Amino acid sequence: MEDLAIFFSKSLMSWLVIQVCLTLVFIWYLRSSKKNLLPDEQLPKTAVILCLRGADPFLPRCLRSLLNQNYPQYDLKLIVDSHEDPAWKIASETITEQEATNVQISPLRIVRNNCSLKCSSLVQAIHELDDSYKVVALVDADTIVHVNWLRELVSPLGDAKVGATTGNRWYVPTGKYWGSLVRYTGNVSAVVQMFIFQIPWGGTLAVKTEVLRQTELLDKWGQALGEDFMMHNILKKHGLQVKFVPSLLIVNREETDLFNLIDYLKRLILYSRLYHPRWLALVSEAVSSILFPTLIIILILESLLETKWEAAALLLGCYGVYTVGLLLIMLVLELEIQRVVRSNDQAIVKLSAATIIKMLIGIPLTQWVYGLAMLSSLWISTVTWRGVSYRVQGPWNIRLVEYRPYQWLDQPIDSKVSL
Q1: Can you tell me the distance from the alpha carbon of 402 to that of 389, in angstroms, rounded to the nearest whole number?
Q2: Beta pairing partners, 389
Q3: Which of 89, 247, 342, 347 is the most buried (most CB within 10 A)?
């Protein structure tokens, strides 16, 4: 028992050291990156594409932020699932309110049966663009951007080596549901991982139109469940990089409960298995982050039952150091992200003592919820998102099983809950 306790203790401490090192690299990048924004005359004409199905909690704020960008030439292209979708009415009212002239709203005309609805919408929107658009920017309805968002997203594309630019979402830890806290905790790790692996996030993403033509991206989107994770390998084949822009870390204040979160995580894990270029690394990370701490808890209980006090004390001390270490990583990253958010004149959240205690409790809860979701995802071949079902038999073998237009009755009772 003591040998086993020593082995797991060393393994867990080693993994904590690795996480600290990766976090320090990420923070160094955040602090060392400088904004090199292009002047108006050098900024290319850009199409911003937003695909909508259902009325996301902060959709009006998202649209207003997109319609008021500090950018000389851009048009907002809205592809709404159908005329009867709740998002159509909200989008139309917001456009009228803003008196916007650089926006076009269209329904999804062809529902493809071999890719996701979002990919169908993207393919339709891009095929309708004329040659004057040199950049395509993608954004999600849960993204409330700051006034220089598009300028900061497009400017790095002036480098010939950069094929795409991206940001990432950052949830807040102050929600009223435990699901919101678990999602926040898991996302802290995901943001660092996506930076390390150069994985783009579709909620804030820009790509040159010439890159879309040179690569097989549009063809792949027409066969896929999602648009972003696959881009790393496709761009890498053409000698192009995905550049993460620190100032485009976007705060997300939506909520979710544990039940809906588990469904979301199962979809995300399946999606990662299909398209993530470092899937085996993710599996290894899951073993270290979920299996090792859980086994140590089991060994602590077994040691106590067998009155092996030294082994129990070693394991308990190790688990305590690991958990507190993760909490400190979260707090340090939260402060760094708040610094970025503050520089963009966005509101920040204040962490109370009660919130920090909940974050500490949320660490083991996150490990168990993610572990459950990962195990559950091993057997799923059908996923449902916003009332639409897909049968998944491979990364490029997607079949739309069931489709119906989104209705007002499909909206969650709590207006802040993610769809």
Answers
A1: 5
A2: 384, 402
A3: 247
